Amino acid sequence: MDMGIKGRNALVCAASKGLGKGCAMALAGEGVNLVITARGKEALEATAAEIRKAMGVRVIAVPGDITTPEGRAAALAACPQVDILVNNAGGPPPGDFRNWSREDWVKALDANMLTPIELIKATVDGMIARRFGRIVNITSGAVKLPIPELGLSNGARTGLTGFVAGLSRQTVQHNVTINGLLPGPFDTDRLRGNFIFNAQKLGKTVEELAKARAEGNPAKRFGTIEEFGAACAFLCSVHAGYITGQNLLMDGGHYPGTL
Fold first, then answer.
1. Can you give the pLDDT at residue 166?
2. What pTM does this model have?
3. Residue 170: other Cβ atoms inside 10 A
């Protein structure tokens, strides 16, 4: 299927590896020109070179912290016409809420709620004027099924989801959609970090926890960044103009509910 977005311009956050990289690769495969951001310059440049070589599209790498005003300004300056925005930022660390300070909460909200909102605010009116825009927020399956040790993430990402629920109904008439992609267990550094945290707490090995988690999933495996990227590319396509304010859960069937 031709996604109909060749030649469009996308800003993809936290794209040097993991789910952000999967989205960047999939969009580039559809002929989308990219501005990609991440804090680690070396990994970001390597990803940019990889995408250029594989896909032949324009890729601009902008190292920086997208959760800061300076990081956002640099990324937006490199992509003055954002047709597609993929919001993504590393989640806050796991822990016990009794140990979290107000500063911890503010930092989580800045990264996983307020930064996406700031980027939406900076780009959505241009999308409306051009009559095309696709915004995808990478959040978490925890929005539907909270993870106890990830309370900071649960709160911040659910806040973003609630905000988008209202705004997305206002923009869709202008062919600007806003949706969420909710990853469950994907083979990423983030997942491995959670295994390390829980292994220390439970007195088990990382390998034991990973095996048990995979076998406990109806899919009997973890997701891949390629699968995640393909879903992102579809939500960004011309075929998805009637989908807005939705949250696509990608978890291999882990969530047990019907809705």
1. 97
2. 0.93
3. 14
